[in-house]
Design brief:
about 270 residues; Rossmann fold; 7-stranded parallel beta sheet; 10 helices; about 45% helix
Length: about 270
Amino acid sequence: MAKTDANKPKVKKAKKPGEPKTVAEAKTLEKEPEYWQLTDDEVLLRSPEPEDEYKTSDSWRVFRIMGEFVGGFDDLATITRGVTIFGSARTDEGSEMYDAARETAKLLAEGGFEIITGGGPGIMEAANRGAFEAGKVSVGCNIELPFEQEPNPYQTKSLSFKYFFVRKTMFIKYSNAYIIFPGGFGTMDELFEALTLIQTRKIRNFPVVLFGSQYWRGLLAWLTSMMLNEGNINPEDLGLIHLTDSPHDAVDFIVKTFNSGAPHAAGSGIES
């Protein structure tokens, strides 16, 4: 049943430290003991030092990683028509892109697709909200961060991961398409990882939709004028991307490719 703003589910908000506004403030903040709150990713990926006690425990940490994979695979085993929607956590409710993501997710959900996001605020909240209000499956793959991410309240299935690479595997494995709304480094990371895996045939070719032509125009122009012109990609690589400003067009594109029986419409899968 759809929920209105008046009875919007409540989520306890984590207390966040103030963010530095200048480089000087950031350098000062880094000196504070509380600043370096170690994440599991940071501990795993840092280079060992001669007297580093973590050096001897790396092999045992594999069991925690394995547990996250097993838990994720079990929790998402029923997701067969997943579409992951990415975008900035900083997008405000009521903005043009928030409303577009909400509508796109609702249309997809009503069309029989399960919506997957990173579980946070902004575009992620909008997408989960659209699926939630349609009364359909709304998945959030949350990540533990040094300054805790607040899960949005529109998730019918909520997972939490310690490791980014485990979480990213879940996005790829259970998605039949990606829709990329305007975002920052994390959004770009997911976009180019998907394109790289498709290009190298590590996964099947599935639809990658860029939403918001004004936002993405400069990037696409650079890919064409520089990357393609220098011969670092092939013309067909640019064909992996579908650009749109319309929720209906994004959904129609995904539905058509999914139903066409073409390789890219059969679900991503992870090739063995």
